[in-house]
Design goal:
Helix content is 43%, strand content 14%. It has 10 helices and 4 strands.
Length: 208
């Protein structure tokens, strides 16, 4: 056997059990009311620390997170939420504004050192930059919701808001653009709407 062959490593991956899958997917629900018990800063920090490991294009990690926790911050945010989203955003113990950093490519020499010149490519091509940033940041927003659930908390994602208004309020330098607002906490009274049907396998999955 050569030295090379001796060094070959074949990783073994872990399969989540039914309870873990339920917490992330099958039993997890979108919360519309919240218990007033607080969510600790450490829990919010940990949600990001877990979500950050999931994959993005060229490891660019364009998502940015603003945690809104003070009463004053909440009022500034709710002003820009759609009418139907105001009450639950006011009641949630914590709220995350998820945004894309439109100049994410400045970090490429650090996060993708195998090809640092990609930063110049994205600097020169605004369309490619925006498409790549939007795509990977949106993926990261999904990872973020699953990370909230992995912490035993409920998420209430919302796209009903005036994005330009939130951007002007919280990100006045124009660099971050709001994608999604996520209420975070423990479920309150009657927190779930009726479970809506999922599309059938046959409507979604093709095989080739
Ligand atoms: C991108 C996105 C945008 C959403 N926007 C809103 C919203 O503005 N207001 C709201 O009440 N729910 C919103 N929702 C919640 C969805 O309606 C909910 O997650 C979906 O119906 C599934 O519910 P379930 O997790 O309880 O099965 C949004 C969810 C996502 C992922």
């Amino acid at each position: 056997m050569t030295d090379l062959a001796e060094n070959l490593v074949v990783p073994t991956l872990t399969q989540l059990d039914t309870a873990a899958r339920a917490a992330l997917f099958t039993e997890a629900r979108t919360a519309n009311s919240f218990d007033p018990s607080p969510v600790a800063d450490a829990e919010l920090a940990s949600i990001w620390e877990l979500a950050k490991w999931a994959p993005t294009a060229a490891n660019t990690q364009p998502l940015r997170v603003l945690y809104v926790r003070t009463e004053q911050g909440r009022e500034r945010l709710v002003e820009h939420m759609a009418e139907g989203n105001k009450a639950k955003t006011l009641a949630a113990p914590a709220v995350a504004v998820l945004a894309v950093d439109t100049r994410f490519h400045e970090h490429i020499p650090t996060v993708f050192p195998i090809k640092p010149e990609l930063a110049q490519y994205f600097e020169a091509d605004e369309t490619a930059r925006n498409e790549t940033g939007q795509f990977s940041a949106t993926l990261q927003a999904g990872y973020f919701i699953l990370s909230v659930r992995a912490h035993g908390l409920a998420a209430g994602p919302m796209a009903g808001f005036d994005a330009a208004g939130i951007d002007a309020e919280f990100f006045p330098d124009g660099r971050w653009h709001t994608l999604l607002v996520v209420n975070i906490g423990r479920p309150g009274q009657n927190p779930w709407f009726e479970r809506l049907p999922r599309l059938d396998h046959s409507e979604v999955v093709q095989w080739a």
